[in-house]
Each structure stands twice: as C-alpha cells, then as structure tokens.
Inverse folding.
C-alpha cells in the first residue's frame, strides 16, 4: 500500500496544461491526498480561478497519472473548501514561472493593491523599472507589464488573495 | 433555513453573472484597443465561470445540471437585473455599467463570505478576490475618462445618467429579504446598496462626475421577478444556440 508521501511524489510530474514547466503540486492546487485502501486514492483539488477552463482536464490528468502509477481506484474532486490563493505557490513553483517567462506574483498579506503590480521585476532582465499595463492577459491568471530596461513586454502571474 | 429564499438568491446572482458575462464576451474582437479587448474577454470568462459555480450550488440543492439551467431556460425564466441585459452600446456605457455592477458584485461576495450557508460562503471567499481585479479596471477607466477630454467626460456623464436607474434596479428586494437576513445567509439588498453608494461616491468624485440627484432616482425593477426588456430574448437565443443544437452532446 502506498503512503500519502509517495502519492504526492507521483503527482509531481503532472504539469499545468497552460504552463508546462510548472507542476500542479507546486501550484498548490492539490489540496488533499488520501490513501483509502490497498489501491484506492482520493484527491481533492481547487481551481486557481473560479472560471478556470482547464479544471476538468486537470482532474483527468491527475487520475491518469495515478492509474499509470498503479492505483486501481482513483477519485478526484474539485471543491472550494480550501480556496486557492497565490501564496500557495511553492518556491520551486515561483522559479518555474520565471523560467517560463512569467513574473512570479508578489507574496500578498491578504490584500492586493495596484501598488503591488506597479514595479514587478522583469522575468527577462530582473529590472524593477517596469510598468503595469493591464490586470488582464491571455489567461485568467495573467497580467500585462512592460520593462523600460530591456524594452520588452512581459506577463505576470497575478497575485490572488 | 428557507431553501426557496436561498435558491432565489443564487439564481439572481448566477443569472446576473451569466448575462453580463455574455455581454462582456461581445467585446471580443471589437474592443477599442487590444488591452481592452483582452480585458472584457477575460472578465467574461471569469463571470461565466463564477455563474457556473453558483449553478453548481443550485444543482446541489436539487436544480438541474448547470448547462441545462444556463442554456435551456427562456428569457422569461431569468432572474437577472434588467441593467445587465441592455446592449453594450458604446464603450462608455459598457465601462460605466462595468463599474456600477462590478463594484456592487464584489461587495455582495464580500458580504457572502460570511454567509451562514457554508457552501455559498466558500465560493464567495474565492470569488471576492478575483473581482478585485475587475473593480481595479473599472475604477481606473472611469477616473481616467472622467478627467480626460471634454468628449470623454461628457460621454461618461451621459453614460452614468443613463445607467443610474437601471443600476439601482440591481438592489430589487426579494419577498424573502427578512428570512435571508434573519438566518444569516445574506445581509440583504438595502445593506448592500448602502455599501455600494458609499464605495462608488469617492470614485465618481475623483472622476469629476456627478451622480444624478436623489429626487430623480427611479429604480428600474422587474428583472428579479422575470420581467425583462426586449433585449434579453435575443441574447438568450444567441447564448444558447450551440448547446440547443444537441443538448445531450458530449463536449
């Protein structure tokens, strides 16, 4: 019988479908792993954004990975019991975002302000001489910025409380 | 707890979100600049997703599946405020509606984060943070355009004047207001309206605009009782068209 730790480790290869360098574990969207039997696992997930269009797909990816890992009975549910906020991204997750060219979200203390967004560090050159262009981007989790130092537009991962 | 009162509350919130989400999506490809096109498209996705979460709560209370509820009802079965079904008009009207509705909606979810109905409180705790970005966007543009050129200021004031009574219609009370308040499910429309007025006033002032004087206020009610303008039926037809081609299809 597998331990919860082993199941968590098995899940580390399941990547976010939109940000393929980032695992769902590092995103902080897997909120519960329960080993319920010899070959039976229960997983609870929560979406980054209520309108996330990939949630069903991600449930399927998690179930597929555990079946491939050798678990016969997998149940995956999505709830708002432990709602996601951007502080749940792990350190490794934040680094993966940067590697993908997305400015990591600032750590929030319960509030998000426009000031937080103004001088986000450029993921390409590191400069904070940047401008916040829009709270909306190509996906729900992205905002748009411009770097006055290396003269490139870049996207940020939005801080969500 | 009165489950009819609760369902009515959930339906009106979900319908508001679904209808304005659809209107927002009508800016896709047509926004005045790229970032604004993206903004309304993104907000549309947020709002439709949020409506789905509320339809899911309704499903858990015995209503049909979210897709069925969203796409097979007729216009005279919707509980959205009439404000949200009005056509987008020019960008000035859309922005002003975005400001007036989104501020109210964000405050509504702030209140509901403390609802005694725990499944709704959980969803509200999630949604209230997401809506902050919608409100940032609305506040920024209302202030920018109110203080812009003569034309932008005039347009925003006209849009505010035209939107105002419809906006007041968002706070149409239910026959179950007292039940909802007494049971702790929701603080009620009067409390929400008061908070909304207090919240928009400083932004309107900063935008150098003026709220119509209170002796002209005439809230447009009816939406909560499924009475709608001629604009809702064509919206519902268009929104439901694909689903209705084959309601049993697997997508």
């Amino acid at each position: 019988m597998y331990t919860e730790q082993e199941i968590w480790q098995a899940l580390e290869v399941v990547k976010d479908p939109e940000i393929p360098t980032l695992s769902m574990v590092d995103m902080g969207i897997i909120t519960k792993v329960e080993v319920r039997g010899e070959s039976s696992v229960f997983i609870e997930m929560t979406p980054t954004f209520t309108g996330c269009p990939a949630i069903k797909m991600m449930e399927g990816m998690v179930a597929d990975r555990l079946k491939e890992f050798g678990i016969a009975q997998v149940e995956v549910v999505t709830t708002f019991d432990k709602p996601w906020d951007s502080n749940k991204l792990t350190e490794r997750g934040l680094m993966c975002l940067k590697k993908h060219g997305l400015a990591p979200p600032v750590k929030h203390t319960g509030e998000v302000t426009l000031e937080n967004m103004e001088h986000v560090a450029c993921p390409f050159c590191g400069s904070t001489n940047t401008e916040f262009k829009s709270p909306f981007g190509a996906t729900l989790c992205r905002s748009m910025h411009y770097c006055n130092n290396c003269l490139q537009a870049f996207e940020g991962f939005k801080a969500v409380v | 707890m009165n489950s009819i009162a609760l369902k009515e509350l959930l339906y009106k919130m979900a319908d508001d979100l679904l209808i304005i989400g659809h209107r927002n999506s009508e800016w896709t490809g047509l926004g005045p600049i790229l970032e604004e096109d993206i903004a309304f498209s993104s907000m549309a996705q947020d709002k439709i997703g949020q409506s789905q979460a509320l339809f899911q709560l309704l499903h858990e209370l015995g209503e049909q599946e979210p897709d069925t509820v969203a796409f097979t009802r007729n216009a005279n079965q919707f509980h959205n405020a009439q404000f949200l079904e009005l056509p987008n008009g020019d960008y000035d009207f859309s922005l002003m509606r975005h400001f007036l509705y989104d501020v109210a909606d964000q405050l509504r979810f702030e209140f509901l984060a403390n609802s005694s109905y725990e499944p709704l409180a959980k969803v509200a705790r999630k949604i209230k943070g997401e809506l902050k970005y919608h409100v940032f966007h609305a506040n920024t543009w209302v202030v920018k355009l109110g203080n812009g050129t003569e034309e932008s200021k005039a347009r925003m004031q006209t849009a505010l004047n035209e939107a105002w009574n419809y906006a007041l219609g968002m706070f149409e009370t239910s026959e179950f207001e007292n039940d909802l308040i007494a049971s702790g499910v929701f603080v009620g429309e009067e409390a929400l309206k008061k908070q909304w007025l207090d919240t928009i006033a400083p932004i309107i002032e900063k935008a150098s605009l003026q709220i119509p004087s209170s002796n002209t206020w005439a809230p447009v009610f009816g939406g909560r009782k499924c009475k709608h303008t001629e604009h809702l039926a064509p919206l519902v037809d268009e929104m439901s068209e694909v689903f209705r081609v084959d309601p049993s299809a697997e997508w």
Notes: Strands of chain A lie at 30-37, 40-45, 73-78, 102-103, 130-134, 142-147, 152-157. The longest strand of chain A covers residues 30-37.
